[in-house]
Amino acid sequence: MSLLHPGVQREAFAAASHFRDDFFDCLTVRGDMLFELTDALLCADGPVTTPVDLTLTAEHRRGHGAMYDALNCGNVDVPRLRQVLAGLPQPEAADGRLVLAVDVTHWLRPDAPTSPDRLFCHVYGRSGRSSDQFVSGWPYSFVAALESGRTSWCQILDARRLGPADDVAEATAAQVRRVVEDLIGMGRWQQGDRDILIVFDAGYDAPRMAYLLEGLPVEVLGRMRTDRVMRKPVPVPWISPPQGGRPPKHGKEFRFARPETWGEPDAATVQVTDRYGTARAMAWDRIHPRLTTRSAWIDHTSELPVIEGTLIRLEVDRLPGGHDPLPVWLWSSATGLSGGGVDLRWQAFLRRIDLEHTFRMIKQTLGWTRPKLRTPRSSGPVDLAGHRGPHPTPPRPATGR
Length: 401
Prior knowledge:
The chain is of the alpha+beta class. 27% of the residues lie in helices and 23% in strands. The protein has 9 helices and 14 strands. It has helices at residues 6-25, 31-43, 64-73, 78-86, 168-185, 206-212, 339-350, 353-364, 380-385; strands at residues 27-29, 75-76, 99-108, 119-123, 133-146, 154-161, 196-200, 218-224, 229-231, 253-255, 267-273, 277-287, 309-316, 328-332. The strands form 3 sheets. Strands 3, 4, 5, 6, 7, 8, 11, 12, 13 and 14 form a 10-stranded mixed beta sheet that branches. Helix 2 packs across helix 3 (64-73). The model is unreliable at 380-401 (pLDDT under 50).
């Protein structure tokens, strides 16, 4: 029988106590009531179905009127809270780097036609893609640090609402930039550390996100649509044709749906996993999209950039739910990856699903979307306040820092 050393228990308790103090300092208006409401939220027996039920818990020492006053008039210093969250010990991947996931979840409000700033939110159907719907609601963009090992917990670092006037890519890039700057400012990333890996799903244009995040110590990893067409690098050395002319910017086409255009991969790996069977990955270096002055690049006035990266194709034997596995295409802004680097990227992408479990937890257990709010502003104090409490991460020794 193994016992936890008492010193470790004291350190974990001290870390949780310091976080509670820092969190209380972020509550600038109605702080006492908001703090009690957070305690009641985390200590309630069973899922939270309505805010007024929290006033019946032992941790809530005020009446229900004070609870509504705190929700309506309270305020959270979100920039300060974001720095507090960035200063907590962050989980790391196998090679010691930070891995962040970005995704959007929705606060659906289909029966609130007078509520402002609602957007059409994509909702997946239960019987396949043919039953997908677009429901009115408020979309929220989350950034979280992914854990490693046999756990699905992740640490939320920021949450912001996307408005009707926001460009999703630019708003997300600004959000990620702010989080990375907070991590650097709080000492969680230092010179000499590996680049922070930012994982996106197929709803984001990974090459454009890499362009928007240029100048930061980050690497972008995103899933690509299976019908994409990208370009290979120009062969080196370039042999000029007899008629002359400048060298081309793009090489031959790389069509995802046509294997004859792929060529030999620059790296290939085979891994045996418990959940997916044999996982086979192939990677091609310096693959890039051919950009045109349309869509997202229509306002680009200078020469269009060539955004090179590593293209990864992942294929597995089976899926946990029994569905037929389809190949997954990933694009990383890093180039020159080895076989081990390729495996680390697709394994990090698979951990992105942990953020989906977090969305389910804050909605179904913490009751984030239970209140029937009139305006999206009222949902702000709940965004970051509720998640950190149930999973205080104990301090971890820094590796090589």
